[in-house]
Design brief:
The chain has 11 helices and 4 strands, in the order ββαααααβαααβααα. With about 250 residues, it is mostly helical.
Length: about 250
C-alpha cells in the first residue's frame, strides 16, 4: 500500500511504508545485536574483575567507564540511523529506511527524538506497534513526533537537497516563461539530464545548442545572461506548471 506524503510546499510524494512484519523483524535483529553486545561487555567485566581489583581507581571513575562502554548499545538505533543514512543493521537486512517527508535524510534532532520516544513505543504495551497498525502512513509515535517515515528501500529515491531548495516548489514562485508548460515530459527530461551532466562534464557547445533549440521550440526570447541560466529557468517553470496538476 502506498501512502501519499504531502510536504510543506504542497508537493505530494508517493512512498511505500515498511510493513509491520518488516519493522518487527528489523527490531528483533537490532535487539539481538544490542543483547549480544551487553553480554560480551558484561562477560569482559567479569573476567577482568580480578585485574581491576588491583587498580587504584575511584568508584566514580569506574561507573563513568562502565557507562561509556555501554553507551554504544544504549544509543544503538540513534547512532546507526545518524551515520548510516537512516538504517540500522536490522533495517538494512529488511531493506527499509528512515526518511523525511520529502525523501531526504532526517536531521540529528529528529533522529534523537525518535530514539527518545522508542522507550515509550516499545515500553508501554508496544504502543508504537498500535500506532503503526492504525496509521496508514506506518508511523509509530516517535515518527509522528519527529515527522519521519520508515519506507521500503526499493521505492526510495534519495534527494541530495530538500524541496525547500527548489524555487518552483514555493507557493509564491512566479514562472518566467509560461510557454514552458508546453514542454513534453521527454523534452524536460533532456534538459534535466543535460544540466546534470554539465556538473561533472562541462560541454559549452552542447548547452548552447540546447538553449537555442529550446528558444526556437518554445518561441521565447532569452532574459537570462547565460544558456545554463535559461535552461534552469525553463526547467523550473515547467516543473512549476507540472506541480499544479498534483
Amino acid at each position: 500500500m502506498k501512502a501519499d506524503i504531502v510536504t510543506g510546499q504542497f508537493v505530494r510524494i508517493s512512498q511505500t511504508p515498511a510493513t509491520v512484519a518488516e519493522r518487527m523483524i528489523a527490531r528483533i535483529i537490532d535487539n539481538v545485536i544490542v543483547f549480544l553486545y551487553f553480554c560480551a561487555v558484561t562477560t569482559g567485566f567479569i573476567k577482568g574483575q580480578d585485574i581491576l581489583g588491583y587498580i587504584d581507581i575511584s568508584d566514580g571513575l569506574l561507573i563513568l567507564f562502565v557507562w561509556l562502554v555501554y553507551l554504544p548499545a544504549i544509543f544503538y538505533s540513534f547512532i546507526c540511523e545518524a551515520f548510516f543514512n537512516g538504517q540500522t543493521i536490522g533495517k538494512h537486512s529488511q531493506k527499509i529506511r528512515v526518511v523525511n517527508a520529502d525523501g531526504s535524510q532526517p536531521g540529528i534532532g529528529q533522529l534523537l527524538l525518535r530514539w527518545l520516544l522508542l522507550m515509550i513505543d516499545e515500553g508501554f504495551f508496544f504502543v508504537g506497534l498500535i500506532f503503526i497498525i492504525l496509521n496508514h502512513k506506518g508511523q509509530r509515535l516517535g515518527d509522528m513526533a519527529a515527522g519521519t517515515y520508515v519506507i521500503r528501500l526499493q521505492n526510495y529515491q534519495q534527494l541530495n537537497v530538500t524541496l525547500q531548495d527548489f524555487h518552483y516548489a514555493n507557493p509564491d514562485y512566479r514562472p518566467v516563461y509560461p510557454q514552458a508548460a508546453n514542454l513534453s515530459i521527454a523534452q524536460a527530461e533532456v534538459i534535466r539530464k543535460t544540466l546534470t551532466t554539465q556538473q561533472s562534464t562541462p560541454n559549452t557547445q552542447q548547452i548552447e545548442r540546447l538553449a537555442a533549440k529550446v528558444e526556437q521550440t518554445l518561441g521565447i526570447q532569452r532574459r537570462e545572461p547565460s544558456s545554463i541560466s535559461l535552461l534552469l529557468t525553463v526547467l523550473h517553470d515547467y516543473q512549476y506548471y507540472a506541480l499544479e496538476l498534483v
